[in-house]
Amino acid sequence: MAPELVTTRLLLVRHGESNATVEQIVGGAKGCTGLSELGRRQAARLRERFRAGGEPPVDVLYTSPMPRASQTAQILNEVLGLEELVEADLEEHRPGRADGLRWDEVEARFGPYEGDRYPHRRLAPEAESVAEFQHRVSLALYRLIDANLGRCALLSCHGGVIDVAFRMALGLSGRAQYDLWTLNASITELAARHPAGVHPDRWRLVRYNDAAHLVGLPTQSAHRADRDAPAG
After folding, report:
1. Which of 54, 56, 114, 142 sees the fewest Cβ atoms within 10 Å?
2. CB neighbours of residue 202 within 10 Å
3. What is the pLDDT of residues 4-45, one digit of tens each?
4. Model confidence over 47-81: pLDDT tens digits?
């Protein structure tokens, strides 16, 4: 007999705009103070998109412990009505002693950071390297997928986490010669059709950076300074 086939689906939601981004500070466990006013409006738009229907039914909701991600999950969950499962390893890159500093202060104290070119370098003392971050998140994603085979899991997380998921699912190793610039409160969807009980080995990118629900909102807070900073 042919094996039973199931579909495993990941909905990866980047949090709304954060206060840390507006204030241009490093938003680790200390520096993250949650969503900006615009970030809350973005999350509310996402909630209303799910309320309107048309999105895949969500079976389980995970969130990073960072306030910007958990607040996004809470707003979205007003429609989903699921238990919010906090997953520590969905946290963004851990910045060590750079946490809570302004980005210009980080460079002044610890020197220029080129994590993309040198994945084993650290932003600051006690920080994760890019390689360590990618390893942590990859293990977490594998674990969450195995726990939810045949289900649809929504992850309220970060740009860096979505970057790792995208590259992992599509078999892209290391840093390719392009950037993924994931929008706040956007949806990225990955799906796999596979035998029941077997970890999927082939994924389909259904969509990336779907932010149609944000039409009409500003792309960033008016008083936010532009900076080519990590996605967060």
Report:
1. 54
2. 9
3. 999 999 999 999 999 999 999 999 999 999 999 999 999 999
4. 999 999 999 999 999 999 999 999 999 999 999 99
Domain positions in the chain are 5-214
Does domain 5-214 match CATH 3.40.50.1240?
yes
Side-chain-side CA neighbours of 14 within 13 Å: the count stands at: 27
* Six token digits for residue 172: 């892209």
Can you name the residues that pair with 18 across neighbouring β-strands? 35
Asked if 60 and 154 count as a contact pair (C-beta separation under 8 A), the reply is: yes
Q: Which residues, 6 or more positions from 41, have their beta carbon under 8 angstroms from its beta carbon?
A: 16, 217
Report the distance separating Cα 151 and Cα 56, nearest Å: 10
For residue 99, how many other CB atoms are within 10 A of its CB? 21
Q: In whole angstroms, how far apart are CA 140 and each of 76, 102, 200?
A: 22, 29, 15
Query: What's the whole-model pTM score?
Result: 0.94
Q: Is the dihedral of CA 36, 42, 44, 47 positive or negative?
A: negative
